[in-house]
Amino acid sequence: MKKLGRKWTEKLEFGAFTIPVLLCIITIFYIPFAMTIRYSLMKWNGISKNPTFIGLDNFKQIFSGDTNFTNAALFTIKYAILYIVIVNVLAILLALVLDMKLRSTTWLRTAFFIPYILSLVIVGFIWKFIFMQGFESLGDSTGWAIFDLSWLGEPGLAFVSILAVSIWQSIGFYLVIYIAGLQSVPEDLKEAATVDGAGPIRKFFSITLPLLAPSITISVFMALTNSIKVFDVILSLTGGGPGGTTYSIAYDIYRDTFQNNLYGYGTAKALILFVAVLIITVIQLAFFKSKEVEA
Amino acid sequence: MRSKHTPKRLILEIVMVIVSLLFLYPLFLTIINSFKSFSEVMTDVIALPKSFTLENYTYVWKYINYPRLFTNNLIITVVGLAGIILVASIGSYKLARTKSRMSNFIYMLCIIPILIPFQSIMLTVLQVAKQLHLSNSTWGLGILYWGFGAPLALFIYHGFVKGIPREIDESATIDGASGFRLFFSVIFPLLKPVTATIVIIDVMWIWNDFLLPLLMVNGSPSTKTLTLAAYTFVGQYTSDWQYAMTAMVMAVLPSIIVFIFLQKYIVKGVVSGAVKG
């Protein structure tokens, strides 16, 4: 009898501790997620009282030739790949320099981190101002042709601008992760390699880089999840232009749902995005984990 | 290997400082142009302002009702943060301490949402919020962040609690403490380093968030956030760059001030948050 009583108090306590968080998460994620699945099978403009059930028609329509979605998907894939590669390579290079313990290390770290504390929408506007007004003045005073290009007005350049601005904003974050990673690379391993006659480049590829693998896994994971969802910076920097060439998937979903009132169609796209994110992150984590070595 | 101050190092040092200054140059331009008049912004962006005028600031301050927006941001951030920390810390503690299939299942259920992109659920979250009477209110938005922030916070707390020896719980139980008493007077203080990390990550996120406030509290001027106001303001004044720049500076100023004071902890927080998250 006594044992049963104790078990019940334990269960009661377990519930009291875990139900609040469970309730919050179910309300914010699982109920909306279930509703999303339901809406994706419907045709609904958000106004009429009764959405009509149309089965998989939304998905058929998306896959059989929605040029907006295809273009947005291609944009997002291109953006994500370039963003992940460039931001990580640059951050590793910067981290290597900052790991050399220069006198200005503290300042440098702070300087590169500052844009990361700004909201992406604001960052987009700041750069819009720089591209539109600032470059004109810079062009006048330096005479460099690079400032006279139409950085937001030409499709190819607008893509480069979005990429550059996103990297500018977030590189400090990845830098901090890599500095932490480098500090955990044991000095004696590097010294041993020097004694064995390895040069700096050989040392980097044979010792530092493999031991940096956990940091790379995290950074690539973060860069991947963030770049697939790119939205804010495009909204304020180019607004999707010129000529609709810079819409990302997240932006396309936002547009369909809230601007074109295609609620069912938009949520179907949102569901496809979720499945894509799930598959890609699982593959990425499995791949990078398999490459990690123990220090 | 102590650092040597060879000429090569000195050159590298100088190059890096110049690179960092160029890196921050756009922010410098933003700040100086917020002190200029319209015609000055139009004629020369890179020149320093001829006379530092605060006119833009007083105009924007009044126009967007800055004190109001600042209060809104503060309410949303504090309400959101307090809830996230409370529900995630007590939840993760119990889940980490209980070894059962049920506990594992709940833990998985709680952290899977880390992978769900916000865009996948943004429309339906809106409807749920309406049902719960949380829309168009700063408090309501703060409460919504509990659910959005809980998965990552729970994940980070969970990893940390596993490192706290069980003997601590046991000795406190022998002393007569149990349940919430044990948690709040013994365990929660031990979680301080992780709590600091979560505070930093979540403050930067909630304070600067855009899409959720845009969908939730954009309806009325009295519930807007700073970023939202800057967004609509710039949208209306796309050619009045002097006001736009000022609104931008005013929107980011609070986060910069917080950053200066908490710098040391922020970098630490990002590292432990990222390494564990």
UniProtKB/TrEMBL annotation, chain A:
This protein's record includes keyword RNA-binding: no
Any GO CC annotation of this UniProt entry: plasma membrane
Ranges in a coiled coil: none
Transmembrane residue ranges: 12-33, 79-98, 110-130, 157-183, 204-224, 270-288
Compartments reported by the entry: Cell membrane
Keyword set, alphabetical order: Cell membrane, Membrane, Transmembrane, Transmembrane helix, Transport
Membrane topology category: Multi-pass membrane protein
Domain of life: Bacteria
Domain ABC transmembrane type-1 residue range list: 73-284
Any single GO BP term: transmembrane transport
Family, similarity comment: Belongs to the binding-protein-dependent transport system permease family.
Descriptive protein name: ABC transporter permease
Native source organism of the sequence: Paenibacillus crassostreae
UniProtKB/TrEMBL annotation, chain B:
Bilayer topology annotation: Multi-pass membrane protein
Pfam hit, one: BPD_transp_1
Cellular component, GO annotation: plasma membrane
Domain ABC transmembrane type-1, residue spans: 70-262
Biological process annotations from GO: transmembrane transport
Membrane-crossing residue ranges in chain numbering: 12-32, 74-93, 105-126, 138-161, 182-207, 241-262
PANTHER family given in the database record: ABC TRANSPORTER PERMEASE PROTEIN MG189-RELATED-RELATED, SN-GLYCEROL-3-PHOSPHATE TRANSPORT SYSTEM PERMEASE PROTEIN UGPE
Similarity annotation: Belongs to the binding-protein-dependent transport system permease family.
Designated name of the protein: Sugar ABC transporter permease
Organism: Paenibacillus crassostreae
